[in-house]
Amino acid sequence: MPKWLKDAVFYEIYPQSFYDSNNDGIGDINGIIEKLDYIKDLGCNALWINPIYDSPFMDAGYDVRDYKKVAPRYGTNDDLVNLFNKAHEKGIKVLLDLVPGHTSEEHEWFKKSCQANKNEYSDRYVWTKSVWQGIANHPYVAGNAPRDGVYMLNFFKCQPALNYGFGTRDSDFQMAPDAPACISTREAMKDIMRFWLDKGCDGFRVDMADSLVKEDDERKTNTAAIWANVREMLDKDYPEAAMVSEWCNPTSALNLAKFHMDFYLDHHGNGYNTLVRDYETDGGDHSFFKCGAGGDIMRFLNDYLPKYKNSKDYGYISFFTCNHDTPRETNSLSINELKIAYAFFFTMPGVPFLYYGDEIGMKYQANLPTKEGGYQRTGTRTPMQWNKGKNLGFSQADESMLYLPVDSDANAPTVESAQADKDSLYYTVKKIIALRHNEEDLQADADFEVVYAKEKEFPFIYKRGNLTIVVNPSPNAKQVPFDMTKKKSIFEIGAYDNSEEKLMIGAQSFVIFK
Ligand code: GLC
Ligand code: CA
């Protein structure tokens, strides 16, 4: 386990939309370099950058054409190495996005795989033996290649599935996960990882990490074995490199697959969603952090606690504010609600991730036309809002050239306005991150213990090491039989009174006692 993860706070950057340094309307690597001081000042000491590789961008770069080449619109490989170096000088680690389950249909491997003649790449992807033979339970494409067979898709039509074999096999085209062709796919991925790690990258966020072996068992044992093999390489040759999985099943991802971190994703009804993203629930949004919405902390704890307990000796569960696939939380929560929710995320065990712009409360831009396969995700991917200048400081290009339009609201939050307002969400985020760096008890490894949690009641009280944290997102002040007279607050949102043996916690309040 890389030690630096203990105190890591990640910042996710969607490179298209962060900062345009050469005024062509799209964010780029030099733009990220220019903003490293901003990120450092905010308190983040690690980055996850969405795919920056050469791509036809049918899925925002998750359709990789060349894993070893930076997309020209973002810069060059040298620029990326420069970013690694500049970031390291400032104590910031950089994770790239590894897309191991599929490539673009324009990748050289796939072009060769499509050929009628047998070659080195024929079995790099999943193909049946004839164009008339389909694939049960998976999308596939027929009649699109000289080769006689259909190929499997892993996601969109532009993303043919790489071949890591099948867990259960009942058809002649399905290979065992240890077939030589499947092992070469795995080794090709390791080669790509080594390529970037040797250039100074600090690890990878892994896209659809659970998707490799098809018809795998419930725990995804075969897929996990591939990642455990990758981890062996890392432990031996790159012990400081970190891996975070898009999996959302910590017992598989951490215990079996040996990822260091696993995302607690936006999945309908899971513990994370009951906190802040409960809006798909029948009968309305009952998110715990939504004031007066009748939230229930037990819905979260019943899901989270077993996952945390089972996996904590293996790795970290990663809470995030949002990501590039998920509506920004401003979609359903107010700034005051978000202050409390974020204070909670940054005081939980594991390694937290902040999505660019969430620190200033950027809005989800509903109803934007889809861009690069974004569909409803497009509204979460708009340009970072730096200041009130042209294009909100994102780019000096003509407005018509922008990757996506900037928020047109006259009151759109910007970094500049947030920094000028002592009560902004930005300062709450900055303060809680700073506190996390100061207090080992708030970091990834410190103990987590539930102290007071009752069905449909507030507040929720938990301990991290020796710190006691009291959370009351409800519209009413609460009194609890809890003697905190000997403790001092080291962080607070809202109000509290600990002068008596019963603690009073104000409406919409959050306090950390030491
Ligand atoms: C992951 C990515 C998403 C992408 C998909 C296919 O879910 O986060 O953006 O579209 O995988 O690669
Ligand atoms: Ca640019």
Overview of the structural elements:
This protein has three domains: 359 residues, TIM Barrel, CATH 3.20.20.80; 62 residues, Oligo-1,6-glucosidase, domain 2 (Alpha-Beta Complex); 66 residues, Immunoglobulin-like, CATH 2.60.40. The protein is 25% helix and 15% strand. The protein contains twelve helices and 20 strands. Strands 11-10-9-8-5-2-1-12 form an eight-stranded parallel sheet, covered by helices on one side. Helix 7 packs parallel to helix 9 and helix 10 packs parallel to helix 12. The model has no long low-confidence stretch (mean pLDDT 98). The structure holds alpha-D-glucopyranose and calcium ion (CA). The site of calcium ion has 6 residues, from loops. Calcium ion binds next to loops.
How many distinct helices?
12
Strand proportion: 5-15%
* CATH architecture type of the largest domain: Alpha-Beta Barrel
The CATH homologous superfamily of the largest domain corresponds to Glycosidases
- CATH topology call of the largest domain: TIM Barrel
Write down the domain tally: 3
Spatial arrangement of strands, main beta sheet? 11-10-9-8-5-2-1-12
State the CATH class of the largest domain: Alpha Beta
Low-confidence stretches: none
The end-to-end span amounts to 29 Å
Query: What integer value in Å does the Rg equal?
Result: 24 Å
Q: What is the count of β-strands?
A: 20
Overall structural class, as computed from helix and strand content, comes to alpha/beta
Shape: globular
What is the mean predicted local confidence, pLDDT?
Answer: 98
Main beta sheet strand tally, sense and closure: 8 strands, parallel
Which percent range fits the helix content? 10-25%
